[in-house]
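cron nightly-structures :: item 1 of 1
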Amino acid sequence: MKINLSGHHVDVTDAVRAHVQEKFAKTAVHFPSLLSLDIIISNENKKFYTEISTTYSGVRIAVKGEGDVMYPAIANAAKKLDASLKHRKGQLKANLHNKPVSTTPEIAHEIIQEMDLR
C-alpha cells in the first residue's frame, strides 16, 4: 500500500513517516485491495488535524482526526479509517448473500386447486 504523506504548516520528518507507516501496517494487512492512502497533517491554531482519504471498492472514504499533539491526531484518524473500512467491508459482504425466495412448487399448487376447500 502506498502512503502519500504531506504536511501543511508541519515538517514531515522521517520519524513522522515511520510512525505513519507503523500505524497503517495493520490496515494494509486487513485490507489488501487498498492501494493508496492520501494523508495530510496540518497545524492550525495550536491544534493538529489529520485528513485521510482513499478509495475502497469503488467508494471514496475520507476521515479526519484532531488532537493537541500530532501523534494522537494521527492515531485518532487511523482509528476512524479502520472503522470506516470495516463498515464498508461489511456492506460488501451483506450484498453478496442471496436473500431466500419463498416459492411453492408447481405440484403443490396443482394439488391445492384440485382440492375442494369448502
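cron nightly-structures :: done
The chain has a mean pLDDT of 86.
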